[in-house]
Amino acid sequence: MYAQMVTAVGDGCFYVTLVVYLLQVSHLRPAQIGALLTVGWGAGFLLTHPIGSLGDRIGLRRVTILLSLAIAAALLMLATARGPWFAWFACVVYAIAQSGAGATRQGLLVSLAPSAELVTVRARTQAAVNAGIGIGAAGGGLALLIGTPTAYRCALVGDAALFLVSAMVLTHLPAQSRTPTSCGRGWDALRDTRYVLVAALNAVMYLYMPMLSVLLPLYLTSRTAAPRWAVPAIFVLNTLGVLGWQRRAAARVTTLSEATRAIRFAGLALCVVCLLFGTAAATAEPAVAAGALLAAAAVQVAGEVRLAAGSWSVGFALADPTRPGQWQGVYQSGTPLARAAGPAALTSLVLGWSGPGWLVLGLIFLGAGLTATVAVNWAVCYRPFLATDPQRRHDDGHSALA
Asked: Span 307-311, mean pLDDT?
């Protein structure tokens, strides 16, 4: 948890300063930055599962440490890049290593924590990560306030140093306690079509991330009368809400039935959020538009924390416990996929189609949340280890549709 909180501080600083750094220091055009992010996170999506599989073979802790070092190297390369191609290369390496680390960290958690405590431990970690991102974002804001290339480079170097610290912290962790009985084939998790389907639906639900970070600021500034302070206010509300409610939401999810119920609730909540965002453009009154946006942000927090708890529970329970790197690699690949495809898809849908676009996006969230219940119920029928491990058992055999 401490290792992830340290890196989260760096991530918060990085995400706040990256676009401005690429624009003003690396001299990339906005279209080039968009293409770069798509290529980088797309490569991360393709390589997340192979990296997780590698972790099963040579050690999840070892691979996580190597990925932390790779991220630090990419940040230093970006800070010293003297041309756009070097900046491109550094960002792609960063995205691949970050995506892979998401899988190996999750696999390492599975191998070290008791099955019954996985969601609770993951919730504590997520709360620490959100706190770290908030602290890092403040540091990134200071770099933006100074506004010089040196300030941006110092922020990147500081971020790299935090990943080096994280790597040192990870060396004190024990090796995974659940040694795989057999590594099997490197593509076994991808052949688990039921698990892949559940992971794909989870990726659809996680489109809320680019919706909040990319689509909403563009929509708010170009299509609504809301004041500009609404953007940071929404992010502050989101951060505080997740910090305050994530652990409580996770404590309510102890079975797969409760997990699928949480995902259904999240789908409904995100649908309501989209409708509220859409209504913000229907008024010329700044106060009314801001009120609709803040109300949507509050509902979004409720959906986000329930989605996270349900998603973690499903991803842990349905995975092969003997090869956590492979299965978590498949499940965690949804995050870079959402980051790669989400910005272009969501901006085209909503900004290109305005009100109907928000309605379609809301229905997508609602449909994915409902379909996930059916997919999980289908997958449970083909999970022999759920019958042998009482801590992972699905509500004593009751349907996930309950």
From this structure: 93
What distances in angstroms separate CA 238 from CA 205, 224, 226, one per listed residue? 17, 20, 18
pTM: 0.80
Q: Which of 109, 140, 135 is nearest to 16 (CA)?
A: 140
Domains and CATH numbers, the chain: 2-172 (1.20.1250.20), 189-397 (1.20.1250.20)
Q: Is 87 exposed, middle or buried (0-12, 13-18, 19+ CB in 10 A)?
A: buried
Q: Which residues contact 60 (CB under 8 A, 6 or more apart)?
A: 104, 107, 108, 111, 176, 324, 325
DSSP string for residues in 196-258 = HHHHHHHHHHTTHHHIIIIIHHHHHHHH----TTHHHHHHHHHHHHHHHHHHHHHHT--SHHH
CA distances in angstroms from 67 to 126, 166, 195, listed in the order given: 20, 11, 25
Q: At residue 192, what are phi and psi to the nearest 5 degrees?
A: -85, 85
Q: Please return the burial class of 217, using the count of CB atoms within 10 Å of its CB with bins 0-12, 13-18 and 19+.
A: middle
At residue 17, the pLDDT reads 83
For 340-367, write each residue's pLDDT tens digit.
Answer: 888 888 988 988 876 689 999 999 999 9
Token pair for 363: 């229905």
Q: What are phi and psi of 178, to 5 degrees?
A: -105, 95
Lowest average pLDDT, out of 57-61, 127-131, 345-349, goes to 127-131
CB-neighbour burial class of residue 181 (10 A; exposed 0-12, middle 13-18, buried 19+): exposed
The torsion angles phi and psi of 335, rounded to 5 degrees, stand at -65, -55
Q: How many CB atoms lie under 10 A from the CB of residue 216? A: 25
Band the pLDDT of 399: cuts 50, 70, 90: very low
Side-chain half-sphere of 277: how many Cα atoms within 13 Å?
A: 33
Reduce the DSSP state of residue 43 to 3 states and report it. helix
Q: What is the mean pLDDT of residues 108-127?
A: 81
Residue 64 token pair: 């996580």
